[in-house]
Amino acid sequence: MGSLFLLSLLLLLVADNPGGGSPRGRNSEERVQGSSPPTPSGTSAPFWIGISPELVAVPPGSSVWLNCSNNCPLPEGSRLYTQLQRGKTLSGPGWVYYQLLNVRAWSSDVYCSVTCAGKTLTATARINTYKRPHSVVLEPPVLEGNEYTLRCHVTHVFPVGLLVVTLRSGDKVIYSESLERYTDLHLANVTLTHVLRARPCNLWQPVTCHARLSLDGLVVRSNSAPVMLTPGEVPL
């Protein structure tokens, strides 16, 4: 029989999430510009505005700095529109740095506007928070006939749409599933169920479950403790 899989997802609303939107195993972490309308009076180039970074992902409670820059020689004003808590502001010719404090909303849009020669442009940045899995647990395999049922639980993780769950036997990938189709802005539990044909080459191999979040250049990894595939009554 071929390999089959079943994926289930349970969304959990988080009580302390104002923006709407002890772990088992090992964990690790590895470590832009607006449109160009016609040139306003008094400038030598088309007026532009940019905000950087345009997309950032941070753990809940972090602070974020955003740089709003423009090429207007005499800007009439620069403003930041956000529901997040504001911190310090630093400025210089053509740029303003804004600090946002204690970011806890799952997803927030921040708008920077600059007016030059009576014309106003706006640039947008998005700040997402992420939650590494509270736990990654691989259940002991269940042997029925000549098939193992492997079930992995990834708990309290966000954002689910950036999660990839992988089952490995030693260094070999047994199965991998990307959950990019899920766009809900809620903390979630994910269960991956995979059926593996019992073969002699699979016996006495350590099997692990790996959860990976890829967040705009930051990769967060968590994995389960290994379980062993034992022969039981498997015909060899």
UniProtKB/TrEMBL annotation:
Which cellular compartments is it found in? Answer: Membrane
- What domain of life? Eukaryota
Intercellular adhesion molecule N-terminal domain residues are: 48-134
Which UniProt keywords are listed? Cell adhesion, Disulfide bond, Glycoprotein, Immunoglobulin domain, Membrane, Repeat, Signal, Transmembrane, Transmembrane helix
- What's the protein's topology in the membrane? Single-pass type I membrane protein
Point out the signal peptide segment.
1-21
- The record's region (Disordered) falls at 20-43
Looking up Pfam families in the UniProt record yields:
ICAM_N (PF03921)
Write out the similarity annotation: Belongs to the immunoglobulin superfamily. ICAM family.
Q: What is this protein called?
A: Intercellular adhesion molecule 4
Query: What is the source species?
Result: Galeopterus variegatus (Malayan flying lemur)
